[in-house]
Specification:
Helix content of chain B: 10-25%
Structural class of chain B: alpha/beta
Distance between the termini of chain A: 45 Å
Strand content of chain B: 5-15%
Radius of gyration of chain B: 27 Å
Strand order of the largest sheet of chain B: 22-24-23-28-21-27
CATH architecture of the domain at 695-851 in chain B: Beta Barrel
Oligomer: heterodimer
Radius of gyration of chain A: 28 Å
Distance between the termini of chain B: 27 Å
Helix content of chain A: 25-40%
Largest sheet of chain B: 6 strands, mixed
Number of strands of chain B: 28
Strand content of chain A: 15-25%
CATH class of the domain at 695-851 in chain B: Mainly Beta
Largest sheet of chain A: 3 strands, antiparallel
Number of domains of chain A: 3
Largest interface: A-B, 122 and 175 residues
Order of helices and strands of chain A: HHHHEEEHHEEHEEHE
Shape of chain B: globular
Chain lengths: 225, 863
């Protein structure tokens, strides 16, 4: 319904997969049937009496619930499905659960199953729903022509074609068969590629592979090794 | 040390806290008192840039007091190996090692080798990219040339004056507690406390770990920082054992993955060397230079050929040397700062930036922005419009008039990227664990993954060049570039790429399950030999998510660790030479009489007995004895002393940072002689140092750092409302003493300046930074986070604009953790006045320097 089924995608219903993420105080039991309200009922519903009667002497569990709070449901209950993911920030690699409704991410929280993070996330990981749904996130290609003073719109396909042309032209014009000493070079030093530490392994694999094929040797990222 | 783990890796820090709860000692040694210090059982404040003196002092303390783990050191390290008599130490040459060439400013590292050892690649082949500077061996791409696994000369008694153990002892003999205190600005008592705690918590029954981050690496001697810790951990027997190690706390989700499967200039997947221009055209010589006769690098050819089959399929075969003749070649340095220089000179025309923000994140940010304005075209791919994309209309240089929008020729393409929940793929975390993240939603509008961008760009380029007869296009035509796609946007299938990385037997198509199955005859293909097995039997092991409560503490069925799902590498060292656990308490992997077994996948040939002795002429892993755990090394041992592979030193020596207010207390040589500089380059001016005239204009030590609420150059956090409410602006941390001295007001503004630029920041007066007495002189340290730039939800000056680009020679990393600076109250001048302000102080300093130039021995002007 949301996406074309993809091989291997985790499509577990939210409630089932999120088991263990909700502590007992939020358990979703049905409340007792209420008859008509008598004075005895009213007195019996006084919090102190309820604390004693319901085995919750500190008043931190069931006794503290009001009809309103009893009716509360976690918003993730409304998710269509939940997907296991990994936090995109630092290299600890905390597990994330991404809850999806109507094709939109509705919530991200820590994955309790992860032996690394045990359900915890730092402020960045906690806020990663806002990262992907940031008010300043760009959704369209932007183009600045040489000496231009403004961004212009550009169709993605056109941009891809123009970029492919730039690579082909620059490479053809600035190819180095040999170094000045006559050693083989088989490269262009006129194109450089930067970035990788925030990307997936599969992406880095294609980047390096393509750069090797094109003779682009100035391939670098944030890592120094 | 070198890390503020509680702040920057908070969820990882839960384990440190838990260990502390169970009685572990947690020591934090750092220039600042941070959140980590607050949670530690002991904090020691030291001067930024002085860690090698501190660590070297620990080495000396261990050796002088005979506190080393004798059996471990004798059997598992190269302590007994005798070094050539050509080697001379810094103690003899006052801060230089033997082999120094003052003209070239490089070392002839052949003077550092094991006695009787042939230089690998054979003499006369130096120009083959395996030269005396050892550059191409720098990534473990090949070890030294040991012919039979055992070094030619050893002294098991460790008493020969030229054995590593004795050299080590002499090298660090002057690193006394008093000298450490004087250099680092800490007390003798604090230093001795650390030594005693480390020793007390190491040995058969206990282990200690070092955790570090870029506080250690971002120095002109960054590699040597880690090396010093490695020496300590070898002497104390803390490598390859549970609870031990030197743990890199890396900063990006897949920064480990991006070196394993590198987007780096000098290596190919699995740390295979890129061929060098000096390797000429000969495949056999390239192989000879890279195949280590002994150790697992002995199979370099199988790794290489299998990669070529993954890249080029049937086009690569034995008859054409697997396309080696047309393979691109690198020079000594094609790293990012070299590229920056080329951009400034105008020889780089096109730049593609994907998920990085060099205009804010790289040292000397101004130079990067000026360089972007020299390009013909630039492609920026990110989720938000970062400073690297907007430099042409919104940068400090536009404001100052150094750049003008209408004169910038650069054509800029900004392409929005997809986030981690909008694509399938794997990150490799700092523990070498490949963890799969599933796509949750479709990317919106023009947002696309890098997988999509690079695949479709490659596809278009291949189409445009199809049928070309030009030899330069042979490689791109041969490139295997067909991956299944899905969804309406034609997203490539990430699992298909992972399957190629894993590798397969070409004839049957069966997936490989281990790098041991790789062949050098072209019958196997594998995109990254160390990742071989991640897709064994067609199962995506990176996507294993078996909950932690359903498995043991090692959690072997959560994701997949390279190599071979080993969670602790070199874990054979967790057992003694006879294969017995060092202690019941620290039992991990052991020999059960028939095979190696234990809580982890043994990092050793499973059936190689502890008493195995290699036969004469044995090669590769067969040449590693049963009692030598370090199987990637040609001699199977951990290296206290590094005879080959590093550019700057076989043993770490304390050098001052490139910019520091002090002379070197230990040697006449002040800073690392081998550091990479851009001497005389207008774009990278340096502050006068030590007692040079003009250095008093930049009297303080400046260090940069990160905050929990922000990530690196801010591209992933300055767009998040919550995080910017929590950390809305740039500040600097100064001590009350400095505040008084420089008339700084808490909450007010300060201007911090270097020869490169000046920034303004809110002043945070705090006792978390304290003045230190170094060499009898009081020095102030200033801390500045580096997350800000001109754009997004919170803006501010970039701390990296203050930084110079002098580099470590091994890995080309910048020294952003220790430079010198000046500080004044108030906001900085704006616009052109900013440039004038910086230039005025710089000119003043330089004119004083010119009147009284300082010369150090060893080089024409050895600073």
């Amino acid at each position: 319904m949301l996406l074309a089924p993809v091989r291997g995608r985790c499509n577990v219903p939210a409630r089932q997969d999120a088991r263990g993420t909700h502590a007992e105080p939020f358990c979703l039991e049905r409340t007792r049937e209420k008859g008509w309200v008598t004075l005895v009922d009213t007195i019996a519903s006084w919090p102190v009496l309820r604390q004693l009667r319901e085995g919750d002497p500190l008043g931190r569990g069931r006794a503290a619930q009001s009809p309103r709070s009893k009716a509360l449901r976690p918003r993730i209950d409304e998710a269509d499905h939940v997907v296991q993911s990994i936090c995109p920030y630092c290299a600890v690699g905390c597990g994330q659960l991404v809850y999806v409704r109507d094709g939109e991410v509705m919530h991200i929280e820590g994955d309790p199953a992860s032996p690394i993070s045990r359900g915890r996330l730092c402020p960045k990981g906690q806020a990663s729903k806002s990262y992907i749904q940031s008010p300043v996130r760009e959704l369209k290609v932007k183009y600045r022509r040489p000496y231009g003073t403004v961004w212009e719109e550009l169709d993605l396909e056109t941009a891809m074609d123009m970029i492919a042309d730039r690579v082909v032209e620059t490479r053809a014009r600035h190819w180095q068969d040999e170094t000045e000493d006559g050693a083989p070079a088989n490269r262009t030093l006129a194109i450089a590629n930067l970035g990788g530490a925030t990307l997936d392994n599969e992406e880095n694999y294609l980047i390096k592979k393509l750069c090797v094929g094109l003779g682009i040797v100035q391939v670098e990222n944030q890592a120094r090794i | 040390m070198g890390s503020n783990m509680a702040e920057n890796h908070p969820v990882g820090f839960q384990w440190v806290m838990e260990a502390r709860e169970r009685g572990a000692e947690v020591i934090h040694i750092d220039p600042r008192f941070t959140r980590t210090s607050a949670m530690a059982t002991k904090w020691v404040g030291i001067r930024a840039g002085s860690d090698i003196a501190f660590l070297g002092g620990i080495v000396n303390y261990i050796l002088q007091n005979d506190l080393w783990f004798e059996e471990y050191v004798r059997h598992y390290t190269n302590a007994p190996v005798i070094i050539e008599d050509t080697f001379a130490d810094t103690e003899e040459l006052d801060g230089l090692f033997s082999g120094w060439d003052p003209e070239e400013c490089t070392y002839d590292t052949t003077t550092w080798k094991y006695e009787g050892m042939e230089l690998h690649g054979a003499a006369g082949n130096r120009e083959e990219g395996f030269g005396p500077t050892g550059h191409q061996a720098g990534h473990g791409g090949a070890g030294g040339g040991l012919r039979h696994g055992e070094p030619p000369s050893e002294d098991p008694e460790l008493s020969h004056p030229r054995c590593v153990f004795q050299i080590l002892k002499r090298h660090y003999q002057r690193y006394t507690p008093e000298l450490v205190a004087e250099t680092c600005g800490c007390s003798v008592d604090d230093f001795v406390f650390v030594c005693e705690a480390l020793v007390r918590n190491s040995g058969r029954e206990r282990t200690s770990a070092f955790c570090y981050a870029v506080g250690w690496t971002q120095h002109t001697v960054g590699v040597q920082y880690i090396r010093t810790a490695a020496i300590i951990q070898q002497l104390l027997g803390n490598i390859g054992r549970p609870g031990g190690g030197i743990l890199a706390l890396r900063g990006h989700a897949s920064i480990q993955g991006s070196t394993d499967i590198p987007t780096l200039f000098d290596i190919l997947p699995g740390y295979l060397s890129m061929p060098h221009t000096k390797t000429y055209g000969d495949f056999d010589r390239f192989m000879e230079a890279n195949i280590s006769p002994t150790g697992w690098w002995g199979h370099f050819k199988a790794y290489w050929v299998s990669l070529m089959k993954a890249y080029f399929g049937e086009h690569a075969n034995e008859d054409n040397d697997w396309l080696f003749r047309t393979f691109p070649r690198i020079d000594d340095d094609n790293s990012t700062y070299w590229t920056l220089e080329q951009m400034l000179e105008g020889t780089v025309k096109g730049y593609i930036v994907a998920g990085e923000n060099p205009a804010v994140g790289n040292a000397n940010g101004k130079a990067h922005r000026l360089a972007l304005a020299k390009l013909d075209w630039l492609v920026v791919r990110d989720l938000v419009e970062i400073e690297t994309a907007s430099f042409w209309y919104d940068s400090p240089e536009i404001e100052s008039g150094e750049l003008s929008t209408t004169s910038i020729p650069t054509e800029v393409f900004f392409l929005p990227a997809a986030s981690h929940v909008e694509k399938d793929g794997s990150f490799t975390n700092t523990q070498r664990l490949l963890q799969w993240h599933w796509q949750a939603v479709e990317p919106r509008e023009d947002c696309r993954s890098e997988l999509w961008f690079y695949f479709h760009r490659g596809r278009r380029i291949k189409e445009k060049l199809a049928g070309s007869k030009d030899e330069r296009d042979a490689l791109i035509e041969a490139l295997q570039w067909s991956y299944p796609t899905h969804s309406p946007i034609q997203e490539p299938d990430a699992e298909a790429v992972l399957a190629e990385i894993n590798g397969s037997v070409l004839e049957s198509g069966a997936f490989l399950s281990s790098y041991k199955e790789l062949k050098d005859d072209g019958s196997t293909a594998c995109g990254c030999w160390i990742y071989c097995g991640v897709y064994a039997d067609g199962v995506n092991n990176a996507a294993r998510k078996k909950p932690r409560w359903e498995q043991n503490a090692t959690a072997p069925e959560w994701a997949w660790a390279w190599p071979a799902n080993r969670r602790i590498i070199y874990n054979r060292a967790s057992a003694d030479p006879d294969g017995r656990p060092w202690s019941e308490r620290k039992k991990y992997v052991w020999w059960n009489g028939r095979r190696w077994t234990g809580d982890d996948v043994p990092d050793f040939d499973e059936t190689k007995a502890p008493d195995y002795v290699p036969r004469r002429g044995a090669r590769a892993e067969e040449a590693i004895a049963g009692s030598h755990p370090f199987i990637m090394q040609p001699d199977g041992r951990a290296w206290l002393y590094v005879p080959q592979g590093l550019e700057d030193a076989p043993l770490p020596a304390h050098y001052e940072p490139h910019e520091s207010p002090f002379d070197n207390i230990l040697y006449a040589q002040r800073a690392s002689p081998r550091r990479q500089r851009h001497a005389g380059a207008a774009w990278d001016p340096y502050n006068p140092v030590a007692d040079e005239p003009g250095s008093d204009l930049y009297p303080h030590v400046l260090t940069t750092y990160r905050l929990t609420e922000h990530h690196t150059a801010g591209g992933m956090t300055r767009s998040v409302p919550y995080l910017n409410e929590l950390q809305p602006e740039l500040f600097c941390e100064v001590s009350p003493e400095l505040a008084r001295e420089a008339r700084l007001e808490h909450g007010g503004w300060a201007t911090i300046y270097t020869s490169r630029s000046a920034i303004e920041a809110r002043v945070l007066v705090t006792r978390r930074v304290k003045p230190l007495v170094v060499g009898g002189r009081t020095t102030h340290q200033i801390g500045v986070p580096y997350h800000w730039g001109t754009r997004l939800l919170s803006t501010g000056d970039s701390a990296n604009d203050l930084m110079h680009a002098a580099l470590d020679p091994n890995v080309h990393i910048m020294e952003t953790k220790a430079v010198t600076c000046g500080i004044r109250p108030g906001r900085r001048p704006q616009g052109k006045a900013l440039v004038d302000f910086v230039a005025e102080i710089r000119d003043q300093a330089q004119s004083q320097q010119a009147q009284e130039p300082r010369t150090e021995p060893g080089e024409v002007r050895r600073t």
